[in-house]
Automatic annotation (TrEMBL):
Residues 51-427 form the Aromatic amino acid beta-eliminating lyase/threonine aldolase domain. The keyword Manganese does not apply. Its EC number is 4.1.99.2. The lineage of its organism: Bacteria, Pseudomonadati, Balneolota, Balneolia, Balneolales. This is Tyrosine phenol-lyase. CDD domains: Tnase_like.
Amino acid sequence: MSKHKKRSWAEPYKIKMVEPVKMTTREERQKAIEEAGFNTFLLRSEEVYIDLLTDSGTSAMSDRQWAGMMMGDEAYAGSRNFYHLEDAVRKYYGYKHIVPTHQGRAAEHIISQLMIKEGDFIPGNMYFTTTKLHQELAGGTFVDVIIDEAHDPESEHPFKADIDLNKLEELIKEKGADRIPYVSIATTVNMAGGQPISLSNLKEVRKLTEKYDIPIVHDMTRVAENAYFIKDREPGYADKSIPEIVKEICSLTDAATMSSKKDALVNIGGFLAVNDEELFDKARNMVVIYEGLHTYGGMAGRDMEALAIGISESVDYDHIRARVGQVIYLGEKLIQMGVPVVKPIGSHGVFLDAKKILPHLSQDQLPAQSLASAIYLDSGVRSMERGVVSAGRNPETGEHNYPKLELVRLTIPRRVYTQAHMDVVAESVEAVYENAKDIKGLKFVYEPEYLRFFQSRFEVL
């Protein structure tokens, strides 16, 4: 009797249009990375073979989305596409009101300015760069209350984005509920390696915040990916649909910021979603000052239409299973090769453990930045640093913040690359890992004041 073997899978789409990419020589890449100051963000797109810098705005839209683009109503006020978008947000996410923005960080700016006052503390399940900065610019201090397992790349905890309820309640008791404007919940947590939060934990967080009358603000950038992990890993949810799980996650929160450039499969756009009428009125007034009228908020009508369609496609099970599955495929391949990565594999990228790959470099020598540069030099694959450079400096001392996780992110755009591309990436990382001892550290030669990982320049030590 024959044994069942694991069957191959294929992407759940057909390729209808192609974009040629340039193959470069090592000499060309050496020149390019030096001119970019060893910062992969400063490379030109045409110098990149496989672009895994980010999944933000880099995904491929569907034929339905492109058709929707032709139906753009570019009226300054009351665009019909806004109302299609509003209907989609209410149907799939359940929030009452939306304020469109040009992208997610604009929504972060608005909610931070409206809810945070000087001296406030904002607890959350690990920081995200732009979110934390907007909270600080509004006068607040972010406090990480994620479970300890999130800071351990070897931990196989299935929900490393869970909040430590003891840490959260201790902070509330120490600072006072009146100094905590909201709890910040991300689905999934990027800086931990694309890790999900469980619904059981979120329900407990909700119960605790209701006790102290503190709202929850949801960074829902990758909520469908989080829902997939809940369906796959959390007891009691195997038979629930992705839309049902997404709706339940959102129902446990009071407001949300969305960078639609991730889950929702568009190249630009975002929104702030709220349930509270008074907060909605203030946000709608504020968006007119900083973004545009409250019925477009920095987005063209055609982009709002593509977003409304993208939301419905993002919760399709075949799509989200293949999207996360491609990431897991790359991650498992690297694990088989012996490459140290964050476990379990997250939803939107594979995170290389730069501390273990480059043990001869201290964090002062910027190992993740060095590793990202080395991978590009080897193959033209562009990745990005998620370590001491991204963590920035302590605003009081001026010293580097030293996160426990020093990572390089191989971020997979949605519906863009095939398994063959993943194989090329894995082979490149393996080659770099085998010669890791030859990689030298970097030092800053230029550093902007905010979000330094985007524009800093480095040179080899």
